[in-house]
Write a structure and sequence with these properties.
single chain, mainly alpha, 9 helices, about 85% helix, about 0% strand
């Protein structure tokens, strides 16, 4: 009975966490459409989430695209199908690897930063000071970050897709002997508009998840340095798991047919 009780307690705790996150997301959505709006904070978050994430996104996707080209060529050689490298690299990066890798990099870089920043503000009572100054903490801290991530992560995803395809192009043309013009033509002919739109949609969802998890765990952190560390760790874990789960769901929605 003790084992069953432990399983039941863990299940109830998990469901309660899901409920609290859903309520937090609903409150954030309601504040997105109500004034006041803090445009300076929003612009700062556009830089922090978007511009300063470009190096890690670019390096991650270019190496992934190159490695993907090598793997597809090696696997295709077993069936005399080496010519499919451009098509598979393009569809693999745009449909799956690009959005997921960008989402996970944003979770690692941005979610942890948001959680640590807001948790530190809570520990040092800066959030209480905002309330004293008649400033809603969710309006000032959560809404600009979530909105910035919603808008800028799809752009990062598109850039990551392009850089990943370029990485595969470099490896294929400089190492594997592919013709440059033919490689680009095969890539352009194989990709469809639906592939690109699904990639950008995934980026928007993943960015929203990453920012929400950082804000939620930062707002609900414990006291002291241990609370800040726990909030940071939990936010990254939750963001990564939810991004992968959302990717599975969205892939089924977009490509089930």
């Amino acid at each position: 009975m003790s084992i069953l009780a432990a399983i039941g307690a863990a299940t109830l705790a998990f469901l309660a966490s899901i409920g609290r996150i859903a309520i937090f997301a609903g409150q954030t959505a309601s504040h997105l459409i109500r004034p006041p709006f803090y445009f300076k904070e929003f612009g700062l978050q556009l830089l922090q989430i978007g511009y300063f994430s470009l190096p890690v996104v670019g390096l991650t996707t270019i190496f992934t695209g190159g490695a993907l080209a090598l793997q597809i060529y090696a696997g295709g050689a077993r069936f005399n199908a080496e010519a499919v490298v451009p098509q598979i690299v393009a569809i693999g990066m745009v449909r799956e690897l690009g959005p997921v890798l960008v989402g996970l990099m944003i979770a690692a870089r941005v979610t942890s930063s948001i959680a640590a920043e807001i948790a530190t503000m809570k520990v040092t009572e800066q959030i209480d000071a905002l309330v004293t100054l008649s400033t809603h903490p969710m309006k000032y801290l959560t809404v600009p970050r979530v909105l910035a991530a919603l808008l800028v992560v799809p752009l990062l995803t598109g850039i990551g897709d392009i850089i990943g395809i370029f990485g595969g192009f470099l490896v294929a043309t400089k190492t594997l002997g592919f013709d440059e013009a033919a490689y680009l033509q095969n890539t352009a002919d194989f990709l469809q508009t639906s592939d690109i739109l699904s990639s950008l949609a995934k980026g928007a969802v993943f960015g929203t998840i990453a920012a929400l998890m950082g804000c939620y765990y930062g707002m609900n952190s414990g006291r002291g340095a241990q609370g800040v560390g726990g909030a940071t760790k939990s936010s990254v874990q939750a963001a990564a798991i939810l991004i992968l789960a959302a990717n599975f769901i969205l892939t089924g929605v977009f490509f089930s047919a």
